[in-house]
Amino acid sequence: MIKPIIIVLIGFLFRESVQAGLDPRYRPYVQAAHPDYEQLIYEKLFTNNSDYDPRVPPHPLEDEKGNPHFDIQLQLEVQGLMSLDKDASIATLKCTFRQWWTDTRLAWDPKDYGGQDKVFVDVSGPDPPIWVPVTVIREDAGSGFFSDFKETQIRINSDGSHYWTRPGQLTVTLSLDVQKYPYDS
User: Fold this and answer.
1) Per-residue pLDDT for 176 more than 80?
2) How many domains does the chain have?
3) Cα dist from 93 to 119, 141, 166, whole Å
4) Domain of 161: which CATH number?
5) What angle do CA 150, 118, 132 make, to 5 degrees?
6) What are phi and psi of 34, to 5 degrees?
7) Quick one: which of 97, 84, 92 has its CA closest to 141?
8) How many of the other CB atoms lie within 10 Å of CB of 55?
9) Residues ≥6 apart with Cβ < 8 Å to 115
10) What pLDDT is recorded for position 9?
11) Domain containing residue 146
12) Mean pLDDT value across residues 116-137
C-alpha cells in the first residue's frame, strides 16, 4: 500500500524538477542560485570596472527637457516614540530610514549572468565600495549622521537602481507647546 504512493510521489517530484529546468518561468530562479554568477557580477562592477570611483557621485540623468538632475528618494518610517523629554524638547524615535537612487555605472544585463538581477553590497566599513549619499537630519540631537542606525547591505539591481534600508533610533529636537494639552486641537 505504501509503495505505490512513494512511486507516485517520486514521479511527481521528478516531473516537477524536469519542468522547472525546461519552463522559462522557472529558469531564472534555478540559474540565479548559482554562486559563480554573483561573483562574476562583483568582478564586473568592482574589479574590472576601471571607470568606477566610489568617491564620485553617479552621472546625472536628464529629464524630458534635457535638464540634468539626480534623484535620491527618502523615506523615514516612524514605528514608535521611545522617549520624550518635554523640558529639553528632545524625542527619541524608533524608525526605519530608506533610500533609493540609481547609478547606471553599476548596471549589468541579467541574461549574461544566469538571470541574476540583484546583488548585495556591504557598506559598513570606513571606505564603502560604492558611492553612498550623505544624508543629514537638520534637527538631529543624537550623535549625528544616523550613527544610531544599523549598517546594512545595499541592494543593487541590474538596472543600476539601489535600495538601502536601515533600522535604528533617531533623537531629534522639536518644539513642544503643551500649555493647552489636551485641549489644543
Assistant:
1) no
2) 1
3) 31, 11, 14
4) 2.70.170.10
5) 45
6) -70, 120
7) 92
8) 6
9) 27, 28, 29, 31, 32
10) 32
11) 34-173
12) 87
